[in-house]
Amino acid sequence: MSLRKFLTLITLCAAVFLSRTASAQKSSYGVTDQENQHRSMAINIVKAINAAEANYKKNHGTYATWTTLVSAGDFTPSGTKWSSEEFPTVAHAMYGQGPEIVPGWKLRLNLSKDGAAYDLVLEDLQDPKCGYAIFSDDRGRVRQGRAVECGELAKGAQ
User: Fold this and answer.
1) What is the DSSP letter of 79?
2) Count of C-beta atoms within a 10 Å radius of residue 40
3) What are 73's strand-pairing partners?
4) Containing domain of residue 142, as a range?
5) 16 inside domain
6) pLDDT of residue 27
7) Longest Cα pair distance anywhere in the chain, in angstroms?
8) Per-residue pLDDT tens over the stretch 8-65
9) Helix and strand element counts for the chain (H, E)
10) Are 154 and 28 spatial neighbours (Cβ–Cβ below 8 Å)?
11) Average pLDDT, rounded, for the chain
12) For residue 124, which phi and psi values (nearest 5 degrees)?
């Protein structure tokens, strides 16, 4: 390969890298990559809680409190078995008794009186103005939202 072709190739690669880096800073929906990762982690924590709850109900006939899930070893200071390795920040997060179950996220997990149903809210403590939160229940559907005063929710976290 000639020196000219080599330099052209290097320049092209650098241009592609810089354009991807610049576009990765902020998505087309106005959410930064850091915010998107933060929200994605919370969504996947809720999915892990839902999986742990489904397993607990299968084995015990009722859903569990957060304290029970922690005591059973489903969520520990070294992580959880209910997240795939595709999400290492969730799988290896340092879970605590609560209500701030991981740094920056506050859990409210409510069981019905007979333990046959639950709902949960995982609230972003870094967003006191808009109160961004993830919601779910025993049906397993995961939702996200924030205070109506803050306008439409930016898309991007999965």
Assistant:
1) E
2) 16
3) none
4) 33-150
5) no
6) 44
7) 76
8) 445 444 444 444 444 444 443 455 778 888 899 999 999 999 999 999 999 999 999 9
9) 4, 7
10) no
11) 82
12) -80, 110
